[in-house]
Design a protein that fits this description.
alpha/beta, 10 helices, eight-stranded parallel beta sheet, 342 residues
């Protein structure tokens, strides 16, 4: 881990340089090349939306999230952590995928993810449409084996094809199940709602192993109970979290390609994620931000805070692992309740 041999380089000091000035890296963090090409968490954009079935525009999502993230600050009180001091987090720029050839784009994203993961980094990916989740999962599975998946979305994204196309933003998780890269004992959708093509959609989804927590479930049962259920389902498995911003109600995320009424609030999403802090989060993505349909950066702000919470979880775990390694080297294997060495 980068943290093992150097002090992390953090964001630009906003007391010296205004937040609205300078390059819009995620949370005003250094670029990957500015930290020697190695980071514990690499924030990477994928400006690709050729897999959408309705509104286009998510290709501009990553940069919109970066712009909104200018207001993020280095201490996260909700998790009592300073994520950018615990681990080296850096902006790795964008993966340039062919917008005219989906198959080639999928291959490009997978190869680029392989390269970044090969440096030891975990990925915090900013989409882009949900098609990109498949190559990202392929890459993560090469490193960790089949992974548990938490999929926050208004939609199932386990359909077979659109217009005969196998790779679209509505099909990535069916392909992932077919390819054996998901741990089918630990799959969950969260925030689903809205009309379907037919009941067969739910039947097929259940056969793949997915559990479903609808947005109505979140409202009725509350975030603590939902987070506890998800933690129990995931256990200690390596976990990938994929977040389509349309899991939020259009009141909180109007800037997305396929909005559905009756979604979660941004507060509910953030609280559920905070409740997953003890899970073994190996990488994550936030996708489907389409800024052309946004208003006053509502969607981009929600997405930037979502990525911030995910990054904090990963940074805390990286720091905990490093502390545990040091403790074991000293012959002290004691841990506190968070799994961080005393």
């Amino acid at each position: 881990m980068t943290s093992s041999y150097q002090t992390p380089r953090g964001p630009v000091d906003s007391s010296r340089i205004p937040r609205f000035a300078g390059p819009a890296t995620f949370a005003r963090l250094p670029r990957l090349d500015e930290v020697g090409g190695r980071a514990d968490v690499a924030v990477v954009g994928v400006p690709f939306d050729s897999g959408v079935s309705y509104r286009p525009g998510a290709r501009f999502g990553g940069n919109a999230i970066r712009e909104a993230s200018r207001l993020l600050r280095p201490y996260n009180p909700a998790q009592d952590a300073s994520p950018f001091a615990l681990a080296q987090v850096a902006d790795a720029g964008d993966i340039a995928a062919n917008p005219f050839n989906i198959n080639e784009a999928v291959e490009t994203v997978e190869a680029a993810a392989d390269e970044l993961l090969g440096t030891g980094a975990r990925l915090m990916t900013l989409g882009g449409d949900h098609t990109i989740a498949l190559p990202l999962l392929r890459s993560v599975a090469k490193k960790h084996g089949p992974v548990a998946l938490l999929h926050f979305d208004a939609h199932l994204d386990t359909w077979d094809t659109y217009f005969g196309a196998e790779y679209t933003h509505g099909t990535p998780f069916r392909r992932a199940v077919e390819e054996g890269i998901l741990d089918t004992s630990a799959l969950s959708h969260v925030g689903t709602r809205g009309p379907l093509y037919g009941k067969q959609d739910l039947d097929d989804d259940a056969k793949m192993g997915f559990g479903i927590v609808t947005s109505a479930d979140v409202m009725r049962r509350g975030v603590d109970e939902v987070a506890d259920q998800l933690r129990q389902r995931i256990g200690s498995r390596p976990l990938y979290i994929s977040i389509d911003i349309d899991c939020l109600d259009p009141a909180f995320a109007p800037g997305t390609g396929t909005p559905e009424a009756g979604g979660m609030t941004s507060r509910e999403l953030l609280e559920i994620l905070r409740g997953l802090a003890s899970c073994n989060l190996v990488s994550a993505d936030v996708v489907e931000v389409a800024p052309a349909y946004d208003h006053a950066e509502i969607t981009s702000v929600a997405a930037s805070h979502t990525a911030y919470e995910l990054t904090t979880i990963m940074s805390r775990q990286i720091a905990g692992q490093f502390a545990q390694q040091n403790a074991e080297a000293r012959g002290d294997k004691g841990e506190n309740e968070d799994g961080v060495a005393k």
